[in-house]
Amino acid sequence: MSVRVVARIRPLLKKELDKDVIVRAAAAEEGKPFTIVKIPNPKNETEEFSYIFNSVYDQSCTQEDLFNAEVYPHIKALFQGLDVTIFAYGVTGTGKTHTMRGGMKMDDRGLIPRLLSNVFRRGKKIEKDSNGETIVDVHLSYYEIYNDKVYDLLEPPEMRTPMGLPLREKEGKTFVVGLTERPCDDVKDFERLYVEANNNRVTAATKLNAHSSRSHAILRVKVTQTTGDMVLESTASAIDLAGSEDNRRTDNNRDRLVESAAINKSLFVLSQCIDAISRGDKRIPYRESKMTRILSLGQNNGITIMILNLAPMRSYHLDTLSSLNVSSRAKRIEVREIENEVVYKQPHRSHSSTSFSGLTNGVLAPRQPLRPIGLGTSNSYTGSAPALARSATDRAAASGAVIEKAEKPSKLFNVYADRAGHKSAASFSGGGGGSGSRIVGPPQANTSQIRQPLSLSGLASRRSMTDTVTTSSSSSSPAETSAIRSGLIGTGASKLARPTGLPLPGSVSAGVSRQNSSSGSGGIQPPSSKTADNTPILTLSAAQIEAMVEKKVAEILAQRALAAAALAPSTPTAIPSTPKSENPPPHPSSSTSSEQKSEPQISEEVQRRLEALERRIEEQSMNSTSRSSSRRGRGYGSRDEKKSAGLQLLLEARKAKEGGDLETALGLYEDALGYFPGQRKLVGKIEKLRLKLGRVERGGWDGDKQLRGEEAGLRQNGGGGGKGQNGSGGREERRSGSVGSSSGSGRRTAMTVSTTDLDMDDEMAASDVEETPSEAEARRRRLLKSRGRSATLGVGLSRSRQQLYSNTTTDSSSEYDDRSPSHSDPEHPAQQEVGPSPRTKQLLDIVNSRDTNLIQSLNGFGTKRAQELVNHLDTRGVGGEGGQGRVQEVKSLGELTTVPGVGIKTVERAYEGLVAMDEEKREELSKKLALRSYYDETETF
Ligand SMILES: Nc1ncnc2c1ncn2[C@@H]1O[C@H](COP(=O)(O)OP(=O)(O)OP(=O)(O)O)[C@@H](O)[C@H]1O
């Protein structure tokens, strides 16, 4: 099913009553519900643009109407195991917060409070209908993304670290590490938590909206239905995105500008993701902002509803068009509706709560690091909870076998072993984006966690994990209880990981292996084990080790965050409402001093593992830093990049050869050989050229040696004599030599060289390579210098190619000319004055818009290429003096092929894509172009 996209047009506020209303809802047919938003074309008011959505709500729509139509129908699905994500999108001041949160009066309540009260109501009904066999628990987590950092809204602001909470990917899903999860029993509970949390939310007044929310807020409602030993878990996520805004209009101060930039960037990335998904791109730029990572649009399973909020006034005209464009594309996003699976808890075992005595009876119990193979599929269940209750007894026998398997830990230490088959039940809470609540299950389908061994008594006492923990753990001190309540336990791996505040006697004496040998079955040692000198032995289960490791990781991350913050004191990351202290507050999941006091001594073995882990983390981060810096510095870091650079050289060589510049061609081929050492065909080409140029070897160039690849990565000196020079220095040397020699006579004669001795696939591949504009420009200048001519249209192209691409005004032979044949009649000179064909013009308009989003709608232009094209146009221009002059526009397709990183093939693909484009898309493109040029003209963008 596609993402459901609905639009809501808000009414005019009191102060806006005199404003001009330009946005209206319309129906496709009279008497039918509204599905169309109509808005005038800003360039021609007599014309109206229409945007079709799944549903459109006009100004008269009440909160209740919207809830009943868009959310209520999905509550049943939520209880059947589907995740539901609702997010509000729109410009600042259009009513997102009003829609999601609403006002305090009953009628004004937004979708979130209504959702919660319906969830509680349905939960109670299920419990009642099942005669208490099914228990429904609701847990909340609530966080915000502010300036691309994640902060827990259920924690007081003092608990925040400057870097916020880290995200982590697990089995294709994104989770917030260390997020609090609170049990919530009824509407009152919810209201208390929600109001408290919203006070933490960063809000700051801007000129546009006195209550503008400056962060994206994500509420996650986890519904857990437990019947006997079966657990079905699903999540509803409600996301109130921050609004985009035009900084010039809002007159923002510096802090607000930083906020705005972060908000606009993440919303821009969101629109890019929507574009990329709707285009069917392989690469979706989710990772470019935290919000898009969490939202994971199109990656999450379940039901996704996007509510586009619109203000009806003229003052929002362009912003409204922009949002309409983005959201109408979101309709095309397909979401898999896959229900979460029922899983079986392990039965309560008398010794199961023993592994961590002070903490036992459920605290660590919910964390089961391993999921038995086959459990997910064999237990797949798609019915409702009452049905689940009914079938509980029947399934018990069957589950027994599975449970047996589940009891046997197949791996003891698995925090970082994110293998597909590993179905850890560790529940990092968070991951607001719909299905992002679990880290178990295959990437295709959400699966619920095995809650091992959540005691039945705990269940009977009904309520949260926390309550289960506190009621069943007689040894829990009030401090522990508060640690648990504050979300340290029962909310995810890092919470469960926290062995703090526990009265742990003596040292942890054994690693996992010892457990196995001593316990005999299940590898868990009774809690009361003692050493010969009567010191209690505390053994660690895999889950506990994992938990400790998680804790350590959280500490490391927190330390790093603090270190980073200390290094960048002026970085405007501070949240206005966050009180600053000299010593930054600890990370919510890092140890406080009191916790440290009571931290258990850990065994050497565990310590060794933790240290190894720390080293690994450090190494990984060093590697990634050096990788990225080398990529930045050199440009050809990876294998692919090297290949790209080599292919680019091949393309240039081919162009030079076609243009008759054999000297340059030879040099470029030789350079390319450095990237493809020993490549037989290439060596052949070089030999041919050398022969043509009369370069009879004096023992200088040894093709055979190259073929053997002995000089991989080295380039041979073209002048003979000296052997290869390494790297770019060698290239430069050869180039200068080549310039000198190429001034000779060989160039013209090379016009006779057939293009067929160059592979077409070389060209195709090479035309697709990516190169940074500056590198390409530098290389191009060197080439041009050596050729002694300017980078005009069709540089290096054969005559025929030049004709093909010079379709600006007079060329009538362009193969891309979709004008009528008469227009291209060379017999009619007057007609040769006709401008470029509509498709060519459209392509050039798109390119000249310098709008990466638009450019990416062309075939063959991904994010990087589009960005590089724009950068190139902005910084260097095309076709100027030596390629350096700033020329405002690309005037022909031929000129476009000279842009670094574009190439012939790419232009061909883009053009053909436009020709083949269906009407709907073409119209959409025209709208966007119109909007873009309007923006350009009015300079409001
Ligand atoms: N449907 C509506 N009915 C009545 N008032 C509304 C409606 N929608 C929005 N408003 C009012 O419009 C104003 C702006 O709405 P709101 O704060 O929800 O916008 P927003 O999109 O969340 O802005 P931001 O992105 O800045 O947070 C508020 O005063 C709100 O009460």
UniProtKB/TrEMBL annotation:
Span list, region Disordered: 425-535, 570-643, 700-839
Chain residues that bind ATP: G90, V91, T92, G93, T94, G95, K96, T97
Range of residues in the leader sequence: none
GO cellular component, one term: microtubule associated complex
Skewed-composition ranges (Low complexity): 461-486, 507-529, 570-581, 589-601, 737-748
Ranges where the Kinesin motor domain occurs: 2-333
Domain of life: Eukaryota
PROSITE patterns for the chain: KINESIN_MOTOR_2
Molecular function GO terms recorded: ATP binding; DNA binding; microtubule binding; microtubule motor activity
Feature: compositional bias, Polar residues: 444-455, 799-813
Biased composition (Gly residues): 716-729
Biological process according to GO: DNA repair; microtubule-based movement; mitotic spindle organization; spindle elongation
Record's compositionally biased regions (Basic and acidic residues): 605-619, 700-713, 816-830
Family matches, as InterPro entries: Hlx-hairpin-Hlx_DNA-bd_motif (IPR003583), Kinesin-like_fam (IPR027640), Kinesin_motor_dom (IPR001752), Kinesin_motor_dom_sf (IPR036961), P-loop_NTPase (IPR027417), RuvA_2-like (IPR010994)
Keywords per UniProt: ATP-binding, Coiled coil, Isopeptide bond, Microtubule, Motor protein, Nucleotide-binding, Phosphoprotein
Biased amino acid composition, Acidic residues: 758-774
Biased composition regions of type Basic residues, renumbered to the chain: 779-788
Free-text function comment from the UniProt entry: Kinesin family member that is involved in spindle formation and the movements of chromosomes during mitosis and meiosis. Binds to microtubules and to DNA. Plays a role in congression of laterally attached chromosomes in NDC80-depleted cells.
Family in the record: Belongs to the TRAFAC class myosin-kinesin ATPase superfamily. Kinesin family.
Protein name from the UniProt record: Kinesin-like protein KIF22
Organism the protein comes from: Sordaria brevicollis
